[in-house]
């Protein structure tokens, strides 16, 4: 998904902002790669394997809601 997201990013920002946008994208991707497995492991340990899937669903819903709010 990284190449698709990065391509979409570069289509969405002016050329003069490529550096800042790509840095922010890489930082967010890295933080998600770090925090996601840790959060899912904690949820699975506390609530069982279904807790992991609930945490993933909650993160997806939060991301979707943030996208809707930002578009308005």
Task: Describe the model.
With about 70 residues, the chain is mainly alpha-helical. The chain has one domain (about 1-70). It is about 90% helix and about 0% strand. The protein contains three helices and no strands. The chain is elongated. The mean pLDDT is about 95.
Annotate the secondary structure layout.
Layout: H1 2-12, H2 18-47, H3 49-71
Tags for this entry?
single chain; 72 residues; mainly alpha; 89% helix
Structural Rg = 15 Å
Mean pLDDT: 93
User: First CA to last CA: what distance?
Assistant: 25 Å
Q: Treating each run of at least 4 consecutive H or I residues as one helix, how many helices?
A: 3
Largest sheet: none
Tell me the total number of β-strands. 0
Shape: elongated
User: What oligomeric state do the depicted chains represent?
Assistant: single chain
Helix proportion range: over 70%
**SSE sequence, one letter per element:** HHH
Helix and strand composition category: mainly alpha
Percent strand equals under 5%
Low-confidence stretches: none
Q: How many structural domains are formed by the residues?
A: 1
